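To make the argument concrete, we let one protein speak, a sequence paired with a row of structure tokens, as a model reads it:
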Amino acid sequence: MSDCCTVPSTKGPKHLIIVGGGSAAFAAAIRASELGARATIINDGLPMGGTCVNTGCVPSKALIRTAEAYHRLSHAPFAGMAPGLPSLDFGAVMAQKRELVAGLRQAKYLGVAGGLEGVRLVEGRAVVRSARSVEVNGEVLEGDALLMATGASPAVPPIPGLAEAGYLTNESALNLDALPKRLLVLGGNYIGLEMAQAFARFGVQVTVLELMARILPGEDEALSKGLSGYLEAEGTEILADAKTRQVYRDGREVVAEVERRGEVVQLRADAILVATGRKPSSRGFGLEELGVVLDKRGFVRTGEHLQTTVPGVYAAGDMAGAPMFVYTAAYEGALAAENALGGNSRRKDYTAVPWVVFTDPQVAG
């Protein structure tokens, strides 16, 4: 029987300890329950559900769809129509987004976990004590294996003055109650472009600054060029090959000093949004003290079975590195649970992984 169809057997109520509360963690708990094992999910930081439902997929796509509808009302593509700019209550838009997030968090995560036999949810900061035990809220939990699935957070580049001037990330931008008039977006990849177009369609004057020679630098050049054309046609300014040398405040304005093709310019805006990648949430859990090896960026090193350098300790999802998608996190969580409970019977396989940028038009591969 091939790896893809092998279902490990469990003898007795094995216990999988899962640190993290996102897609990888819940997929692992579901698979553990299916295999007749117990699972304890320990979560701290973001509410249960992790990045996707709280600060990623769900709120960002709600904002993108709302911006698209608003844009369409004022940009009718047919002759004989006189589109007009509708009124916009951005506070109401964000309130609806928060209701959607809360509802899906309950329906897709907390409600699902509540119906799983042998699954326990614990809120608190976990500290790893051994390969099979953690301490949380003063309680030491013992298990047969440990799965780390603590995700990732926005990576902020060490640009002089940026921290002092203040900035938005995709997480904080998705919690604004009022729109800035002018917005600088650092980063021309998935998150930066999605957020840039959404805010631009709400009427914000947006400039995207990309350090590399073009937006979507990891994809085909024709895709980058084509998408640039669409975004610029809608009014978004795209400055590629642009290095932000420093950021500072001038009254209520934020100023970015940018070097581009031998010229230094000062760009002014009401806010700056940093979308320059993600960093793993791997520090402070006691992993390195246990002997778990992290790479130079802090991602947990795993083998083909998603086991770390310490036997019995597994890692899944964003903290284990690329590809950092919700569906790959869920895939890894379930696979890691099977291997942790059944003796490393399955290998990860990323022969084909779909990806999509939710701009308009969308870009996918």
Observations:
- The longest strand covers residues 242-250.
- Confidence is low (pLDDT under 50) at residues 1-11.
- Residues 90-114 form the longest helix (25 residues).
